[in-house]
Every structure is written in structure tokens, then in C-alpha cells.
Write a structure and sequence with these properties.
Oligomer: single chain
CATH topology: Rossmann fold
CATH superfamily: NAD(P)-binding Rossmann-like Domain
CATH architecture: 3-Layer(aba) Sandwich
Structural class: alpha/beta
Largest sheet: 6 strands, parallel
Number of strands: 6
Bound molecules: NADP nicotinamide-adenine-dinucleotide phosphate
Strand content: 5-15%
Helix content: 40-55%
Length: about 260
């Protein structure tokens, strides 16, 4: 039986995806921090579509929670309680308004929730993913400062994991909530590309995808834009920056050699 795990699958876009998948007789795993809300969604999906729905407690703001959730999930697969893992939908997240705040690990909240939590979760679950499996990231057009969404929310800044994780510390100026969000989505698109490159290099049959990826930089539309906008719109395709973002994120989540799948090195 095909099984797809969705972070934030009990609400919004994630729940819409869960309903669509369940309607195609696909089992789902809802991963999120609100057990009660996940229970309600799970009951609805089971009653409407007759599929198996499992819930997994996961708070992507906490590296400890991510590690516990990944261990619980792997244990459930090994025990045969979950048939397989055919896709991971990295969907949970959002824009976190107000003053800058920090995760239990001391990282800026938006970057921790939208980026580092999912980064670690994917690293830990990749070995459990089936052949032809998929990792799918919910990105956002806001990652592209040339788009109307990007301009309205706040143009994304340099996707430097160390700087973003520590934004606003030691008297430094914090980014606005909008910029924290759009930059986290720029990083999301870059994680998706970087993961896919690593998987291709390793000869893996797994693919990594981000949806709502933004504009295609080589079009006439962008050539007419001011230089800074052209530069930023291309940045999500910058392989050196993406590789650095990846390596820095490994440091920030304290990924051990045992935890890191060989194909992602
Ligand atoms: N709506 C849009 O216009 C839009 C556009 C582009 C991209 N997106 C992206 O789409 C994704 C889903 O958002 P949505 O619009 O469907 O809004 P939503 O209904 O608020 O869904 C966000 C989900 O993320 C979960 N979440 C937040 N923080 C979490 C954490 N620390 N650990 C685990 N789960 C956490 C929420 O769980 P709780 O119920 O526990 O808070 C919720 O299930 C997000 O990544 C968002 O950035 C949305």
C-alpha cells in the first residue's frame, strides 16, 4: 500500500493534499505538533476514504522532536505498522510575525521551523524512502523578489544558513518577518534542488521537488528587470550557494556521520 507522510497535514494545503491522496486510496501519515487536530483530521480521512491514517508528533522547531519523530517512524515501518514510505511532503511552516524569536535550539524561529526542522527530518528518513520515492517541498512564490508576492512580503536576502539561524543576535539587526519568511522559502527551493542533485549523483531513483518555484530566470521578462532583481531571481539556481547552505545546515542540526545517508554526502 502506498503511504505518504505530510508535515502539517491536518490543516490548510497539507490537509487538502491528504484528502486528495486518501481519495486515491493512498495511506497517509500526518506529522505535526497538535495531536488533537491531527486526530480530528485522521478520523475524517478514515471515515470518508477508508484509508489507514497514522499520526506522528513532530515539532519542526525542535531538533530533539524531529529526531524522536524520525525514530518513531522508522520503528513503525520496521514493525510493519506502516507499509512503506513513498513520499515525504515537507509542508508545515508559515510566516511568524512580531519580534524575532528563537527555537529551543537557539535558532531564529522561521528558519528553524520552515528550514532546519525539515532539513533534518529528510536526512533521517531518506533511507526509509521507497524506490522511486519523492520528497516534495511546499515552497512559495515569495522566494522570488521579482514576483509581486516577493515584493509585497519583503525581498528575500542571502540564503546563508549560519546568518539566518543567528539573525538578530548580538545586537545585529533582525530581518522583518516578511523577509524571514521569503528567505526561508528561497532556502526551501534551494534545499529541493540541492537534494535532487545529490540524489542524481548517487544514482538514486528518488526525486526531490519544490512546487511554486517562481520565475524562470532566462526569459525576456527578467532580462528587462533591474539588475538586483535579476541577480536574486537566479540565486535559487546557484549550486555553490546551495551546497554551502546544505553543509552549514548539517553543522547547525549536529548531523552525525551515522545519521547522514551515504548517498547524500
Ligand atoms: N497559504 C498560502 O497562500 C501559501 C502560499 C505559499 C506557500 N504556503 C506554504 O504552505 C504551507 C502550508 O501552509 P498553509 O497555508 O496550509 O497554512 P496552515 O493551514 O497554517 O498550515 C501550516 C501548517 O504548518 C504546521 N506547523 C507550523 N509550525 C509547525 C511546527 N513548529 N512543527 C510542526 N508543524 C508546524 C501547522 O501546524 P499547527 O496547526 O500546529 O500550527 C499547520 O498544520 C506552509 O509551508 C506555507 O508557507 C502557503
Amino acid at each position: 500500500m502506498t503511504t505518504i507522510l505530510i508535515t502539517g497535514g491536518h490543516s490548510g494545503i497539507g490537509l487538502a493534499a491528504a484528502r486528495t491522496l486518501a481519495a486515491q486510496n493512498i495511506d497517509v501519515v500526518l506529522a505535526g505538533r497538535s495531536l488533537e487536530r491531527m486526530r480530528q483530521a485522521a478520523e475524517e480521512l478514515r471515515a470518508t476514504h477508508g484509508v489507514t491514517v497514522t499520526t506522528l508528533t513532530l515539532d519542526t522547531s525542535s531538533l530533539a522532536s524531529v529526531r524522536t519523530a524520525a525514530t518513531q517512524f522508522r520503528t513503525a515501518i520496521e514493525a510493519g505498522e506502516i507499509d512503506s514510505l513513498d513520499a515525504i511532503l515537507c509542508n508545515a511552516g508559515g510566516r511568524f510575525d512580531g519580534e524575532v524569536s528563537y527555537s529551543p535550539d537557539g535558532y531564529e524561529t522561521t528558519f528553524a521551523i520552515n528550514c532546519l526542522g525539515h532539513f533534518l527530518f529528510v536526512e533521517l528518513l531518506l533511507p526509509s524512502l521507497a524506490e522511486q520515492g519523492r520528497v516534495v517541498y511546499t515552497a512559495s512564490g515569495t522566494h522570488d523578489p521579482a514576483s509581486m508576492d516577493g515584493k509585497a512580503v519583503g525581498a528575500a536576502v542571502e540564503p546563508n544558513a549560519i546568518a539566518l539561524a543567528n539573525g538578530g543576535k548580538n545586537g545585529g539587526k533582525a530581518l522583518s518577518a516578511g523577509k524571514r519568511y521569503s528567505t526561508s522559502k528561497l532556502c526551501t527551493v534551494m534545499y529541493a534542488y540541492e537534494l535532487d542533485r545529490r540524489l542524481r549523483r548517487a544514482g538514486s531513483s528518488v526525486a526531490s521537488i519544490a512546487f511554486d518555484p517562481g520565475s524562470v530566470p532566462e526569459t525576456g521578462f527578467l532580462r528587462g528587470m533591474p539588475k538586483p532583481i535579476q541577480w536574486f531571481s537566479k540565486i535559487s539556481y546557484d549550486e555553490q550557494r546551495a551546497a554551502k547552505l546544505w553543509e552549514d545546515s548539517k553543522q547547525l542540526v549536529h548531523l552525525t556521520a551515522e545519521e547522514e545517508p551515504a548517498q547524500l554526502r
